[in-house]
Structures
1.
Amino acid sequence: MTPNEPEDTFKVTDRRHRQDADDLSRPVASAPEPPPRAQSGAAPSTAPPSAPVDPTSGPDRSLAGLFMMLASSAVVALGDAPDPATGQRQMDLAQAADAIDLLLLLREKTEGNRSGEESQILEELIYDLQLRYVRVTKRS
């Protein structure tokens, strides 16, 4: 240390290899090429691997599918169908009411943006679920 340097400094030493003058005449190895992919019988895709997936392109992605998913959740919560995970019937009226309320909210928020078929499915599901809910609450 020199007398002008403060004591709390540190020294950085570069330990990377430096090319000497004789090393410059040697060719530099390029990065290894990735191994070739196994070709299947199908033609290779022309889309780049980082192409975004369209979430609305799948056949199971629809508004009616969302309605059916919420309705099946409500039916399981009402105890009218066994839980797919456990195989047992359990009643959870709060969860059933929440699912029905979500369907009602979707009916309100998607008004004017549904097809005739989607509107019919939604109305029938809400009507059926509300009747089931009343029937279950009268029994208990």
2.
Amino acid sequence: MSKLPILLIGAGGHARACIDVIELEGRFTVHGLLGLKDQVGAKVLGYPVIGTDDDLQSLRQHQSHALVTVGQIKSPEPRMRLFNLLKSCAFEAPVIVSPRAHVSRHAALACGTIVMHGAVVNAGAMVGENCILNSLSLIEHDARIGDHCHVSTAAAINSGVHIAAGTFIGSNSSVRQGVHVGERCVIGMGQRVLKNCDPGTQLPAAVHRP
């Protein structure tokens, strides 16, 4: 079966990680990437940067699939803007799942979400649109992840947790079962979230002293 071409919107480090997952999954071939003006003409892992997001509308005439491959830490705004742009141009944003990840057949993933190597999404979990479930992250049973969230490397989202839209969960952080984390929170690396977080909460990276 022939592979479908896909455009990647973003040409930085996260795009390289996404390319590795896309290549291994095997459903799509990268037609090209869209980046900043000074990136046009360069290559990312051998794939050309063919334009900027200003070119999305014209590229839609020949392409039907696109994925946001800009990373997210401090703010979800860049990913949200690009995702809304690709939808307004009538692109289809597929779900991408690494074959080295596990997603329960009883879980649900919405469009534009990528599940990276070693991640686990257990039964009853629901993940919104345009999310990053990064390498080795864990989404336990019956957790709810809102749109435009990034669950970073080796973070653990325990059972029944609700994470609202636009929130970032840092590497090696864990969220206690049943906790609600509000919209647009930033939970820093290594944090242990044991109680509900109001929208906009900023928890800096945990400091471990000897």
3.
Amino acid sequence: MDEMTVSTNLTRRSLALSLGAVAFAGPSLAHALTQADQALVARAVAYLEALTQAKGRFVQTDARGQRAEGALYLKRPGKARFEYDAPSGLIVVSDGGTVAVADSRLKTFDRYPLSSTPLSLFLARNIRLDRGVQVTAVSRAAEGFTLTARDVRKQTAGQITLSFRDNPLALAGWTVTDAQRRSTQVQVVSLAPVASLQPGLFTLRDPRQAAGRARM
């Protein structure tokens, strides 16, 4: 197996971690949070719900330090597209109901329910960090703050930490940590609102089916 294939496989595993490690559902906000913490949660919710269409870049780093970069498109509610730069060959698209992952190099195509992925946290029409998830910690930093959430039903082990920059408020990225404490970090770069995005960005068909029709 060549080095490029190993790197791609590692990227796919880290992508699966970032998509599937945490399902967001559960009862009320953690009681340990202060009023100041809850005010930051409310700010984060208001910001995310106002971010209806945006595009930018992302940098993903897995537990082994493998990095991958690409372009990011968001169209709330429900839609997102991650285009990984070469040589990755990965495209990840949420169409509002499912998340599709296509790998042109490995010729694979997988689907996941959007509701079982971290993407559902900030793609939902109504973001309810006070009901849909349990926020277990709020941390402040010089340039912003982070919110850590987990699945209180324990249908999936792990947690997610959303990071925000301040002045102006902006999504800086997220880190997903699994039950073995392995983390995948996604840093969001230059995310900016846009007036419109092409609908085709949020449709992803199985490339193997297209190849099969072409051979007929």
